[in-house]
Each structure stands twice: as structure tokens, then as C-alpha cells.
Write a structure and sequence with these properties.
The chain has a single domain, classed as NAD(P)-binding Rossmann-like Domain (Rossmann fold), CATH 3.40.50.720. It is of the alpha/beta class. α2 packs parallel to α3. The chain is globular. Helices cover 33% and strands 16% of the residues. The chain starts with 10 loop residues before the first strand and ends in an 8-residue tail after the last strand. 44% of the residues are buried. The strands form two sheets. The protein has a six-stranded parallel beta sheet with strand order 2-1-3-4-5-8, sandwiched between helices. It has a two-stranded parallel sheet with strand order 6-7. It contains five helices and eight strands. α1 links the parallel β1 and β2.
């Protein structure tokens, strides 16, 4: 059985950030799907399939490995940064730091942009394919009603602009390549762990649930939605 009814199957897939909770769930579900052939996972913590968003050479090397796949049609970027040790989301302007902005943008914006640079050229010119990057609803400017989280919000808003701009360019040569941002909902991982207290009942997803929802959203996405950010339920997140 395959969930990928909109793709020509079997196809190969790449998961970047495969050691994280959602990335590992993506990898496992893709590997179990009859419509998917090879799955190539990349993570910062691995040796043979190492990737580092702060080092473009490692992204280029990962793309060279992926170029050996017979029918690459899906690239998922599941890496992201919200907090790390002393780096925490800002509550007010007084909390801003250049380091916070630099690290958030390096992982959440620049890294995915460079993945697009090096991986988009590997996608086929005919037949549906997709490059999907984890974004976040908090990257929506019009939906921002709570404030705070300056660097994270800004880095995700910038990512969304990168996705939209690349979608406009890429459709000229790859007319069925869908470029997407994905809002996974609140997922029970280390990234969201400090912020789960206010999550409504039934709205905290396991990585497996979130990955399944997002794969279904990717399958349902059309070329007209390229450049959009889709929530876990397939709805469009406002810009």
C-alpha cells in the first residue's frame, strides 16, 4: 500500500534532519511505504550521511550523494532550531541578541535555502515531485497575535519567503515541482517540550502522528499551492 497516489511510484526520497523526532518518523514511514524505493536520511549527528546547515560544502556533498538515486521525487527538510541550552525564545525586546538571530537564521532559513539551491536541480522536469521544509505557524505575520519569539518567528517568516520565491522560479523549468512549507502542529519532541503546558487536549501530536499528517498533506498538495505553507491538516497558513 502507498499513500502517495499523486506521485509516479516507486520514487526515492531524502530526509534531512533524520535524527530528530519528526525526521525519524518521516524516515520510518517512508521506508515502510510500498510506493517509495530508496530513502536517504541525512543528519548532523551521522558520519556517512552527515549534513551541517552551517557548512554549504556539506549540503553540496549531500546533494552529490542524492544525485545517485534513480528517481528522486521527494526532499523533506525536518531540521529546525527553537532553543538550545542558553539560547531560548525571547519574551521581550530586552532579550534579543545577535547570536540568537544568527543561529536561528542559520538553521531555520539559510540551511533550507541552500538545500533548495543544491537539491532542486536533482528533481525531475516532468511528473510530480516535492521539496517540503518544516516551517511554523508562528512564522505567519498576519497570524501573530502574541508577540515574542523574535528570532524564531523572523527566521520562519524568512524561510516562507524563500520557499515562495523559489517556487516562482522553479515552476519555469519543473512544472510539477511543488515547494512547500509545513506547519507540523505542536509535536511531542525536545523542541516543544518546554512549551507544551498550554497545548489544548488532543493538539499535542506524537512525531508519528505529525509525520503521517504531513505526508498526507504533501500527497494532496497541487502545483497551484507551490510556495505555500500548509498546516498538518492540509489547510493553508496565512502569510
Amino acid at each position: 500500500m502507498t499513500r502517495f497516489s499523486s506521485f509516479d511510484t516507486p520514487f526515492d526520497a531524502v530526509v534531512i534532519g533524520a535524527s530528530g523526532g519528526i525526521g525519524a518518523a518521516f524516515t520510518k514511514q517512508l521506508e515502510a511505504d510500498d510506493g517509495v524505493g530508496a530513502v536517504l536520511p541525512f543528519a548532523r549527528s551521522t558520519h556517512d550521511s552527515h549534513i551541517d546547515f552551517t557548512n554549504e560544502a556539506s549540503i553540496e556533498a549531500a546533494a552529490a550523494m542524492a544525485s545517485q538515486l534513480a528517481n528522486l521525487r521527494l526532499v523533506i527538510v525536518a531540521a529546525g532550531l527553537l532553543h538550545d541550552g542558553e539560547l531560548q525564545p525571547e519574551k521581550a525586546l530586552r532579550d534579543l541578541s545577535d547570536e540568537g538571530f544568527e543561529r536561528n537564521f542559520a538553521v531555520n532559513t539559510i540551511g533550507p535555502a541552500l538545500v533548495l539551491k543544491h537539491f532542486a536541480r536533482l528533481m525531475p522536469r516532468t511528473g510530480k515531485s516535492a521539496i517540503a521544509c518544516l516551517s511554523a505557524r508562528v512564522g505567519s505575520i498576519s497570524d501573530n497575535r502574541l508577540g515574542g519569539w523574535y528570532a524564531y518567528r523572523a527566521s520562519k517568516a524568512a524561510l516562507n519567503m524563500v520557499l515562495r520565491t523559489s517556487a516562482i522560479e522553479l515552476v519555469r523549468t519543473r512544472r510539477e515541482l511543488v515547494v512547500l512549507g509545513l506547519h507540523p502542529g505542536t509535536v511531542d519532541t525536545g523542541l516543544s517540550a518546554p512549551f507544551q503546558g498550554a497545548v489544548a487536549d488532543g493538539k499535542l501530536f506524537s512525531p508519528e502522528q505529525s509525520a503521517s499528517h504531513q505526508l498526507d498533506a504533501i500527497n494532496a498538495a497541487t502545483i497551484e499551492q507551490s510556495g505555500s505553507v500548509l498546516a498538518w491538516d492540509g489547510s493553508t497558513v496565512p502569510a
